[in-house]
Amino acid sequence: MQPRLRQRAFFIRFADDFVIGFRDQSDARRVMEVLPKRFGKYGLSLHPTKTKLVPFRPPSSATTGPDGSKGDRPGTFSFLGFTHYWGRSLRGYWVIKHKTAADRFSRAMRSIDSWCRDNRHLSIGEQQQKLNEKLRGHYAYYGVTGNSGALTRFLWEVQRRWRKWLYRRHRERSMNWARLRRLIQRYPLVGVRTVRSVYRCAANP
């Protein structure tokens, strides 16, 4: 049964996660009210913290008051590991941008930290190889247009944790930053890569 909406809407789904966008706020509120009941008919329920209404529209002059105070700012939302938000393009237009969601970033760093701790006994070359595999995997998923800042921070955090656990090896007590930089020159880590352009994908659906 098709819902009766006043204006256009879109639906994006991946596995059991989905986002619904509405042009009309009343449509969004109506669906938000009905959706839990529809799910309940099949013994399903909505995630209590992930399900919410988010005002997501390009900022306008109304966003900032005449005294410089901030008014109603456009919301952000996280979906499939990315936080979606409005930002300026290089040409000054408002566009939807994507950055690694904070919880996914923290989870990835905990994984790297645990791996470096548990495998600090391996040779430097073996550690470098495995860390590069992890970096390539991270870039392959999160390497989208506009996310270079989060990728750069991720690479720096990987270096920081690598140094931390090398320092704790008995024979590597002098692993300061200067020595780590020399080590990385010999055993380089993969640099930041933007693998996918969201604009190119949008132009070629």
Structure description:
There is one protein chain. The chain has 205 residues and is α+β, with helices and mostly antiparallel strands. The protein has helices spanning 25-40, 102-118, 124-142, 148-167, 177-186, 198-203; strands at residues 9-14, 17-22, 77-79, 82-88, 94-100. It has a 3-stranded antiparallel β-sheet. It has a two-stranded antiparallel sheet with strand order 1-2. α2 runs parallel beside α4. The longest helix is centred in the C-terminal third of the chain and has 20 residues, at 148-167. The two termini are 27 Å apart. The relative contact order is 0.08. Residues 62-69 and 201-205 have low confidence and may be disordered.
Q: What amount of the residues lies in strands?
A: 5-15%
Helix proportion: 40-55%
The coarse silhouette is elongated
Largest sheet: 3 strands, antiparallel
Oligomer state of the chains in this structure:
single chain
Roughly what is the average pLDDT, rounded to an integer?
A: 85
The rounded Rg comes to 22 Å
**Class based on secondary structure composition and strand pairing:** alpha+beta
Number of helices: 6
Identify low-pLDDT runs. Answer: 62-69, 201-205
H and E string: EEHEEEHHHHH
Strand order of the largest sheet: 3-4-5
Number of strands: 5
What distance lies between the first and last C-alpha atoms, to the nearest angstrom? 27 Å
